[in-house]
Write the structure tokens for this entry.
Amino acid sequence: FLGICMIVGFLPVSALAVDDPMDNSLENVVPTSPSVGREVWIDGRDGNDENSGASIDDPVRTIQKAMKLAGEGGTIIVKEQITIEKEPDLTLENVTIKRMDEYPYDSRGRLGRILYISESTVTLKNVVIDGNMDKQGDNWGASPLIWSYKSKLTISGKTELRNDALKAMELRDSDVTMEDGEIYNIGKLNNGNSRGIELYDGSQFTMKGGSIHDIKVADSGAAFYTLDENSKLIMTGGEIYDNHGKESGGAIYFRGTIEITGGKIYNNSTGKNAGAIMIVNSTDNFIGGTAEIYGN
């Protein structure tokens, strides 16, 4: 299959094809806790920060309290969605945040999100966010690990977003910078709504480093997907590899703007056209610089 497809526009790439679809900073930086490596339960709906967090029946409510109790290397088990709203500078670091086994469904019949972030600036540093997919059954109604609205996120250090049947991130009017870390093992080949990262409402994802890999979806754009012409993908570094979409655009399916000037995109595959990138109805794009795209 061709590595890159687009409808119209100039790119310094040889393979083209056609598709026609559609403060208080002290409170907000997680401190080193004397309670290192604890397991803590959190319930963002019905929990209480006066609770111990020691069991499913005694969960805390806020991520700040859970982080303090868990300490460096601890595990936060999510009973109900964690909500982060209007936080100007929040850093989450050095813990694992994981869905409980047999996580409850929300009112829409979907497996709930782990993090709902609204109108906030959040840094994920050396954090593992684990959807615990193998313990949720063959679920078509999953939700993303992270749902972001009007927020700015930074992914850094050894952060991992992994093991979700639907998406790693759904972005609404949000700006994400990936400096390092990994996003992997997302989606199921029997779920047509699966993606790695999906962008809406003028969102932007800037990839400077890290990797996105081993995402398998039944539709297009395993790593990145948008039908929003106002959204943007910028890639100056990092690697996107070993992803598969059954439809067109094995790694990236994008109606918005793409600027790829560095990094590597390789060993991605598709059931139809463009193993690497499908650009749809968009002309203001650039792929070149030191970017390497091969083996797709």
Q: What stands out?
A: The helical segments are 25-28, 63-70. Residues 237 and 263 are 4 Å apart (CA to CA). Confidence is low (pLDDT under 50) at residues 7-27, 29-34.
